[in-house]
Give the backbone structure.
Amino acid sequence: MTEDDFREQLARRGYGDPELTEYQPDADGRFHAHDFSAMLLVTAGEFRLVLEDETEVFGVGDWCEVPAGTVHFEQSGSDGASILAAKK
């Protein structure tokens, strides 16, 4: 998905403006959940979304939506990652 396509999807789905987040190489988080839904687009590197029972791997141009209350954590690949993320 292109950034323009992503921004169109955000508007259609009622999300706010996206913000760029940069992850250092091999970044690793802790399990947590949010009280908001998030939609993200990978713009550089490799991004992993670790859920309680699976890990989803995303590359440049891949996107996902994480519903509010989803227990997860984020990881990046060996080159780090950049994502555009928006909340609702």
Remarks:
- The chain has one domain: 3-87.
- The first strand starts at residue 19 and ends at 23.
- The beta strands are 19-23, 38-51, 55-58, 63-66, 72-87.
- Helices lie at 3-13.
